[in-house]
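User: Hey, quick favor. My workstation is busy. Could you predict this chain's structure for me?
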Amino acid sequence: MSVISEFFSRGWKFFVDQVKSIGFNDIIDILIVAVLFYYIYLFIRDRRAGKLAIGVAILVVMQIVSEALDLTVMKFILQNIFQIGVLAIIIIFQPELRSMLERVGGDSLRGLRNLGTERDVQQIKQFKDELCDAVNELSMSRTGALIAIERSTRLGDVIASGTIINADVSSLLLRNIFFDKSPLHDGAVVIRDMRILSAGCMLPLASKTNGINKELGTRHRAAIGLSEQSDAVIIVVSEETGNVSVAYKGRLTRDYDVVNLRLRLDELIYPQQNSRKRKSKKNGKTSGETVENVKEDADDVQ
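Assistant: No problem, here it is.
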């Protein structure tokens, strides 16, 4: 008992000494580390890595307890575990670490990548019009479809699994690709820079299946899977019901009509150019109809 009290006494004295010596730089350092840990927590909270992180935390607590109680064998075992722990964590968390780094790199460099690449507002409008028209026609005919729109994270491995097309986006072409007798209709279409780059592509399935509605098929699971690993926007048309869904950042929202789909694309695809367009309309510099702000009626897949 005296060993435990002495351990906590030394710990408290060390804590008080550290608090007294805190300076301005230390406060900045603590805030940065706190923000870093907060975003790490948000990232792993709804992923498989969350349970693994809990396991690591338990090992750390066991290490502290073994040090406090001077448990020789337990200390020896845990010290050897932690010697290879960093490498083991990198291997175990590899999918989650890759996804996190891809998103961090994509989000932080997105502004730099867009410098000097001003896109024509009319070209963007035509791209979205053709895409929404194709999805609407596919939905009405209950033709299954899977369309991935690449953003900052490159989808080279997905594109390589399909057939290169490299054509302008048009409603007729998309409907022909997903026609049920077409040899490419089973895979996904990947759109890059407003062009249909590849068709018949294979997408990774969702890594977590416990919270996905059992009624959803392979297309929806593939859409969620790709959105977990990239910042792509994936549109799904159900072959059974004709319902339109959108997957983004690991979440699937459902039951879009053509108006809500267009609003969602305006929000996620080239939003800077879309905001400039609205601002110009407000100032009377451009003509044309303004899309009303319709509240999105979507069900999240829990």
